[in-house]
Amino acid sequence: MNSTSVWDVAIVGAGLAGASAAIVLTGKGVRVALIDSRETYPACFKAEKIEPDQADLFRKFGLLEGLLPSASRIHEIVSARSKHVFRVQHYEQYGIFYQDIVNGVRAQIPSSVMWKNARVQDILPGSNVSKVTLMGGETIAARLVVLACGAGSNLPAGLGIRKRMISERHSFCLGFNIARKDGKPFPFDALTYYPDRLSARVAFLTLFPIREVMRANYFVYRTVGEEWVSRFGKHADEQLMQDLPKLAHFTGPFHVSSRVEMCPIDLYRADEGHVQPGLVLVGDVFQGPCPTTGMGMSKVLTDVDALCECVPRWLSTPGMGIEKIEGYYGHPRKTSCDARALRGAAYQRTLSTDPSLRWRIYRELMYLWTRLSGWATTPFKRVVGSGAEKRSSM
Ligand SMILES: Cc1cc2nc3c(=O)[nH]c(=O)nc-3n(C[C@H](O)[C@H](O)[C@H](O)COP(=O)(O)OP(=O)(O)OC[C@H]3O[C@@H](n4cnc5c(N)ncnc54)[C@H](O)[C@@H]3O)c2cc1C
Predict the structure, then answer these.
(1) What structural domains does the chain harbor?
(2) Which residues line ligand 1 (CB under 6 A)?
(3) What mean pLDDT value characterizes the chain?
(4) Ligand 1, from 155, 292, 297: best to mutate by most atoms within 8 Å of Cβ?
(5) β-pair type (139-147, 6-12)
(6) Which atom of ligand 1 sits closest to the CA of residue 54?
(7) Residue 367 in 3-state DSSP?
(8) Which tens digits make up the pLDDT trace of 85-113?
(9) Residues 6 or more apart from 241 whose CB is under 8 A from it?
């Protein structure tokens, strides 16, 4: 095999992780082949909000501007529980469908990236050259393979990588559109609403704009097969009002105005066999996020950031042995982000479901402290008034 047919990096999967890595690496002079089985990323229920740290990383990669045409800027986030506002925050946040994020990133891939629309069947990593075999038999050779195939692929198992389940069926996410019955705009820009009783098994409901719709992400601790899940599928409005009976105080009379999308969440991590010469795992294929933390894309983009710091250095010397690969898995920003995501997921679940006296007291003190600490000095009438003006002028 001559050296011109060996790419510096072959990236398997062009979701958020793979497509962003292709762009950042190319910007650093790395020759990249990018492979995905789907020409266009299809509509799917995943991250629907860009958080401030994620906006910073997109900006650092030069990708944020390209996403803005599909995104709705959120100006003010009201947090409430029962009938009380306990916090009003102003920070950089955007509502945007996941497929628009990925396709918006993909649209910025430079023409020097070799794009291959194919399913990867097999990967053979090695310390000098790694090989990626596509369905149909074609082979792509590269010094490094970046596996960015997301959560559901069987490629890791084929490579002998063991996934450790940290918390099976950790949480359950629902996504749907919501509208006021009177057709008027909601009187807020974005609302995060917390339950006032544990038996609802709810983390929170977040309402935020994506283009012309008010989108709802609802995070609960339920499992497929529970009656609650099928009831929500059939009678979403009623179940929502049963779980959060005082929500209408903020929203006015509402109804669920779209299909309800549901997704059970497992917390897992690649635990054994992932440190191999010539191979790295980025994004959800390495560690699964719990969406209640809002850190899924933070983790993905931090992986990309850490990896793109390492790769030009690795390529400057021969070989791609595990001493190089370990530098990525041990990168301080990556390890700290992964650990925070796991801690955050465990904390949110305990906060939302633990019935012990200790946690009951902690929970009430936490809401009280947040309220008293001056975050909620803006009277609710003013808060909701300004939000309504913004939405109606969109
Ligand atoms: C319901 C839900 C809600 C979420 N909410 C949030 C949120 O509010 N905030 C947040 O930050 N994060 C959230 N997340 C997490 C976030 O969406 C993920 O962390 C992120 O999408 C992972 O990106 P990825 O690139 O690793 O994987 P993906 O986007 O899944 O990309 C994987 C790519 O690999 C390709 N692929 C797979 N196998 C092959 C193969 N054999 N050959 C070729 N190509 C292949 C696929 O086609 C795909 O394009 C949520 C996740 C879910 C499920």
Answers:
(1) 3-56+98-163+271-348 (3.50.50.60), 166-264+353-392 (3.30.9)
(2) 12-18, 35-38, 41, 45-49, 98, 119-120, 148-150, 153, 155, 173, 263, 283-284, 289, 291, 294-298, 300
(3) 93
(4) 297
(5) parallel
(6) 11
(7) helix
(8) 989 999 999 999 999 999 999 999 999 99
(9) 247, 248
| Mean predicted confidence (pLDDT) in 109-137 | 98
Beta strands in the chain (DSSP E): 6-12, 32-36, 49-50, 72-74, 77-81, 84-89, 93-95, 114-117, 120-124, 130-134, 139-147, 162-180, 190-194, 202-210, 213-220, 254-256, 261-272, 279-281
Length of the chain: 394
**What are the beta bridge partners of residue 89?**
77
How close is the Cα of 241 to the center of ligand 1, in Å?
31
Claim: this prediction has a pTM higher than 0.85: yes
- In the reported structure, the alpha carbon of residue 46 is separated from the centroid of ligand 1 by a whole-number distance in angstroms of 7
Q: Which atom of ligand 1 is nearest to the CA of 49?
A: 8
Name the token pair of 38. 């789907």
Q: What is the pLDDT of residues 267-286, one digit of tens each?
A: 999 999 999 999 999 999 99
Instruction: Give the Cα separation of 69 and 77 in Å (integer).
Output: 21
CA of 71 to the centre of ligand 1 (A): 18
